[in-house]
Amino acid sequence: MEKIAVVFQSLDDVTRLRILALLLKESELCVCDLVAVLQLPQSTVSRHLSLLKNSGWLTDRRHGLWIYYSINRSLAPVQQFLVPVLVNFVSSSQTAKDDLDRLENLSRGNCCA
């Protein structure tokens, strides 16, 4: 029961929902790209990424100095159940659409090249 509570608590923040919406559309994003799209300080984005990773939503990989995040391919059953719900509702929000537009217009990878 505690693991389910952690999963739901991890969704109780607009920034974390925005991150998940972006990563559900993109296979992988660098922290610097997320900072640029979300227009938030790196420390804030990193804190939310850490919480999402610790709750099982995300995995990361290090490439030199940069860390890239993606949706965990081994999600818990409750998370697997929630993914279509997130895709349907979160990505249809105007905020998520604005984030995806910023991502599309971003010169991606320039900060971590």
UniProtKB/TrEMBL annotation:
- What range(s) does the HTH arsR-type domain occupy? 1-93
* Molecular function terms from GO: DNA binding; DNA-binding transcription factor activity
Stated name of the protein: Helix-turn-helix transcriptional regulator, ArsR family
Q: Is the keyword Ubl conjugation assigned to this protein? A: no
Query: Per the UniProt record, which residue ranges are transmembrane?
Result: none
Q: What InterPro entries does UniProt report for this protein, alphabetically? A: ArsR-like_HTH (IPR011991), HTH_ArsR_DNA-bd_dom (IPR001845), Metal_resp_trans_reg (IPR051011), WH-like_DNA-bd_sf (IPR036388), WH_DNA-bd_sf (IPR036390)
Record CDD domains: HTH_ARSR
| Any Pfam family | HTH_5
The record's annotation in SMART domains points to: HTH_ARSR (SM00418)
Give yes or no: UniProt keyword Ion transport: no
Annotated keywords: DNA-binding, Transcription, Transcription regulation
